[in-house]
Design a protein that fits this description.
Layout: H1 8-22, H2 35-57, H3 62-81, H4 100-127, E1 132-136, E2 140-144, H5 150-158, H6 180-192, E3 194-197, E4 200-202, H7 207-224, H8 238-264, H9 271-274, E5 276-279, H10 280-291, H11 295-304, E6 320-322, E7 329-332, H12 334-338, H13 342-353, H14 355-376, E8 381-387, E9 394-401, E10 406-415, H15 421-448, H16 452-455, E11 468-477, E12 488-492, H17 493-500, H18 506-513, E13 526-535, E14 538-547
Parallel strand pairs: 2-14, 10-11, 11-12
Antiparallel strand pairs: 1-2, 3-4, 5-7, 6-7, 8-9, 9-10, 13-14
Length: about 550
């Protein structure tokens, strides 16, 4: 039942179970260690799990991506929950030597946080009447979400699941491949590397290798970023951030590859050395030298990307983790840097640290999206930003294809992927308003006034003379399923543009798009099953999505 429909005595029982579960953060095993060592051990254990998941699932699988997302959240959640504060400076005598027994402590806490995360995700949504809670036999609370069919397909799509076969299957990730000259420098570094412990090694920093690798990543970021270099992020621009981030990616790539090659040379994976730990001054010097930025700007970006307990728990967004209260020693897991969405993440940072700047960016993003879409539709007649006479709203985009007698009238929505239930609730509410209010208002007006767009030079003829008229809400990054209404549809704009590349007419592309074959199918491409999470002897069951057909019992 939804919270509003649940009897008071059951609400109290469910809430009391939540209170008991919350006590799990008081019993973290890493609290037995000095805090800076606990953080180091935790981040190193995360690297160990990433490497295990890489071997188990492979890099281009939904399972590996989901594991990366989860680990990037669990680690800072544990850091935030540690009982004791960080020291003013790192204890130089506390050697960071990896021991499997320390890894067991960290893995136990990671497991606890993975289970507790299910409570943190489902209880708030139940309180807000977005999920149902049912007390089952054995005092197990089962949470379920309304919707089936397309609703679950879109949920799977938002989780990164795609059709396993056919033209809509996920493309493998584009990796920066080292040139032969770069590989020769790696071999030289490995030849000169030294063993420091059973699980550790050290190597000299190669400025030439770093420079060559930086150039590769800078070029890659140029192709990835969707916004202009001149976009202001407050104290610096997106172009400055790109230069900084290319430097971090270059250093991370070198270190991750060196650790990988060390095992290929017959050694254990160097867990004692896998975490990148440097003084703040050293980070600034290295990144300044690669990016060409001055020290103050480099320091500012580094501060923005550093995790603090009150910041969003996500090491994709805040990858630098302090090991002391003065933030003079910072640790970095290279894997998250190399598997992140940097543009999306810096916008999350900006929205949290400088909301006024992010509000300005939000006002510009539909325009940015519109220019991007228009650039892909040059073979059609397109117009944009047409206000309705009563000022109630405006038409974002009109696409006319005379060859197939087709018109698409669309609203454009670009919501960043929500991180956390609050952001998801807000984004969903705004998206639903865009369809049920804006699209409906435009549709009703255009049907009642079929000459409106012709009279303003938007269309060649009256709207009611075309064979095919579609109304749509074209979304980017985050959207939810809404059942089609009167030839009005919600579509992922990237999928529509991809389909348009293989069809000559707008009608053919729209016809294929609204079949939604680009969504994964339950039973064929993904399955959902109830999984149990338990902390402090309190069990709950939640729906978990998995890629692939459901394995036979």
């Amino acid at each position: 039942m939804l919270h509003r429909d649940t009897p008071a005595e059951q609400i109290e029982q469910i809430v009391e179970m939540e209170r008991r579960a919350d006590r799990c953060i008081d019993h973290l095993r890493l609290n037995a260690l000095p805090t800076e060592q606990a953080v180091w051990v935790l981040l190193t254990a995360v690297i160990s799990q990433i490497e295990s998941n890489y071997l188990r699932f492979g890099p281009d699988t939904a399972a590996f991506r989901a594991a990366m997302i989860n680990l990037a959240r669990y680690a800072p959640m544990i850091v935030r929950a540690l009982a004791n504060p960080l020291p003013e400076q790192v204890n130089a005598t506390l050697q960071q030597l990896w021991d499997p027994s320390l890894g067991m402590l960290a893995n136990a806490d990671i497991n606890t946080m993975a289970h507790y995360d299910a409570f943190q995700n489902n209880y708030p949504m139940w309180f807000r009447n977005r999920t149902h809670a049912e007390i089952r036999e054995g005092d197990i609370v089962r949470f379920t979400v309304d919707g089936s069919g397309r609703y679950r397909e879109v949920s799977a799509y938002q989780k990164g699941l795609r059709p396993l076969n056919g033209r809509f299957q996920a493309a493998p990730s584009q990796r920066v491949e080292p040139t032969e000259a770069i590989l020769r420098r790696y071999r030289r570094l490995l030849t000169e590397a030294t063993v420091t412990s059973d699980y550790g090694f050290s190597y000299e920093h190669s400025y030439e290798l770093a420079r060559r690798t930086y150039n590769k990543y800078a070029q890659r970021l140029e192709g990835m970023m969707r916004r202009s270099d001149s976009v202001s992020l407050g104290p610096y621009t997106l172009e400055v951030f790109k230069r900084f981030y290319a430097g971090v990616q270059a250093l991370s790539s070198i270190h991750e590859y060196m650790c990988f090659c060390w095992t290929r040379w017959g050694h254990r994976y160097p867990l004692a050395s896998a975490l990148m730990v440097k003084s703040r001054r050293e980070w600034i010097q290295l990144l300044k030298g690669l990016s060409g930025l001055d020290s103050d700007v480099t320091d500012r970006v580094l501060t923005d990307l550093s995790f603090y307990p009150k910041r969003l728990p996500d090491l994709h967004v805040y990858p630098f983790v302090p090991l002391d209260s003065q933030n003079s020693t910072l640790a970095l897991i290279p894997h998250f840097i190399l598997n992140s969405a940097p543009e999306e993440n810096i916008l999350r940072t900006c929205s949290a640290l400088r909301p006024h700047v992010y509000d300005l960016l939000s006002n510009e993003k539909e325009a940015t999206m519109r220019e991007y879409v228009l650039g892909k539709l040059t073979r059609f007649n397109t117009k944009h930003s047409i206000p309705l006479p009563d000022g109630s709203t405006e038409i974002d985009l009109v696409v006319e294809d005379l060859s197939s007698s087709t018109v698409l009238i669309a609203e454009l929505k670009w919501y960043r992927k929500p991180n956390g239930y609050r952001a998801r609730l807000q984004a969903d509410e705004q998206f639903l308003d865009g369809f049920h209010r804006q699209v409906r208002t435009v549709r009703e007006f255009c049907r009642e006034n079929p000459d409106f767009l012709r009279q303003r030079g938007v269309l060649t003829r009256s709207l009611n003379t075309y064979d095919n008229v579609y109304f749509g809400l074209l979304a980017r990054d985050h959207w939810v399923w809404i059942d089609p209404v009167e030839n009005s549809f919600v579509l992922d704009v990237e999928q529509l543009l991809d389909i348009l590349e293989t069809h000559e007419t707008l009608h053919a592309a729209m016809s294929e798009s609204i079949r939604y074959e680009w969504l994964p199918r339950e039973g064929r491409d993904f399955y959902v099953r109830f999984e149990r999470a338990m902390v402090e002897d309190v069990p709950i069951e939640t729906e978990v999505y998995y890629g692939g057909p459901e394995p036979s019992a």
